[in-house]
Design a protein that fits this description.
The protein is an alpha/beta fold and about 250 residues long. The chain is built from 6 helices and 13 strands.
C-alpha cells in the first residue's frame, strides 16, 4: 500500500544509474512565440545568446547522458542543421516528423526505435532551469525507482514557475505520488517539461497525434506516476516577452 512507503527521497546508498538516452521535444509550431517563430522553429530562438535547443542539449551532455534524440517538424531542416553542427561527446539522433506533427506522446512513440534506454528522459526544449545544490537530471535519476514508478516528473511549485500562466498541473502527496489538478481551481505544482519514463507505457500506441497525458493516465490508473520537486530556478520560455524576462533573471541569478 502506498501509505506504508516512506516519502520519496534521495537514496544516498544507491548509485546513480543515469538513463543513457534523453529525448528532447523540438517539433512544435511555436505559435505563441510569433513573430520570433515566423522564420525559425521555437527551439532555435535564442535566450542570452544561446538557442533553447542547445541549452537543453548542453544540460543533457553535462549530466553524462550519452545520446539525445531530437524530433523535428516545423522548419525541420533548421533543426537538423543545428543538431548536425554540434560538437562534443553527445550523440544526437533526429526523429523526422516532417510528414505529420505528432504532438508529445505521438512524437515519443515514433522515436522509440531510436531510444536505446529504458527508462529514458523526455525534455521539453522550451523550458530552462538552473540547478539547485546539484545537477537536476542526476538528482531525478537518483529518485527513480522502477519498483514503484512508470514515470517520474520533475515538478515546480506554482509560486516559483517563472513565465508560466496556467493554474498548475498536479498535486503531490507526501509519498511522492502525483495526481492531476482535476476539477479544483488551482494545483500547487507545475510540470517542468522534464521526466523519466518507462518504455512500456507506450505499448500498444502508434505514431499518431496524441498528448503525453494518454500515457500518464495509464500510470495514474495504476498508482505509478510520481513527482519530485525541483529545488532550483525554472523558466517557461513560451512568448517573446518571456525571452526578455528570462534573460533579465539569468543576469541576476
Amino acid at each position: 500500500m502506498r501509505n506504508n512507503r516512506p516519502p520519496l527521497a534521495i537514496r544516498p546508498h544507491v548509485a546513480v544509474e543515469m538513463p543513457a538516452t534523453a529525448m528532447v521535444l523540438a517539433a512544435g509550431l511555436g505559435k505563441r512565440m510569433r513573430p520570433l517563430t515566423a522564420t525559425r522553429p521555437k527551439p532555435l530562438v535564442e535566450v542570452a545568446g544561446r538557442t533553447l535547443l542547445d541549452r537543453a542539449l548542453d544540460r543533457v551532455e553535462a549530466a553524462g547522458i550519452g545520446t539525445a534524440v531530437v524530433n523535428a517538424h516545423y522548419f525541420a531542416d533548421q533543426i537538423e542543421a543545428a543538431v548536425g553542427a554540434r560538437k562534443g561527446a553527445l550523440q544526437v539522433r533526429l526523429s523526422d516528423e516532417r510528414a505529420a506533427l505528432l504532438e508529445t506522446g505521438g512524437g515519443v512513440t515514433k522515436a522509440l526505435p531510436l531510444i536505446d534506454a529504458d527508462p529514458f528522459f523526455v525534455i521539453n526544449s522550451d523550458n530552462m532551469w538552473i540547478d539547485g545544490s546539484a545537477d537536476t537530471l542526476r538528482l531525478l535519476a537518483q529518485r527513480w525507482d522502477a519498483r514503484i514508478m512508470d514515470a517520474l516528473l520533475l515538478l515546480v511549485p506554482l509560486a516559483r514557475a517563472t513565465g508560466y500562466e496556467g493554474r498548475g498541473d498536479f498535486h503531490l502527496d507526501p509519498f511522492g505520488a502525483v495526481t492531476p489538478r482535476g476539477e479544483v481551481r488551482m494545483a500547487p505544482f507545475v510540470y517542468s517539461g522534464i521526466q523519466i519514463i518507462a518504455k512500456h507505457l507506450f505499448d500498444g500506441e502508434t505514431p499518431k497525434p496524441f498528448s503525453m497525458w494518454r500515457v500518464w493516465n495509464k500510470a495514474i490508473a495504476s498508482g505509478r506516476l510520481y513527482g519530485a520537486v525541483h529545488q532550483g530556478l525554472w523558466f517557461h520560455v513560451g512568448t517573446p516577452a518571456s525571452v526578455g524576462e528570462t534573460e533579465g533573471l539569468l543576469a541576476t541569478a
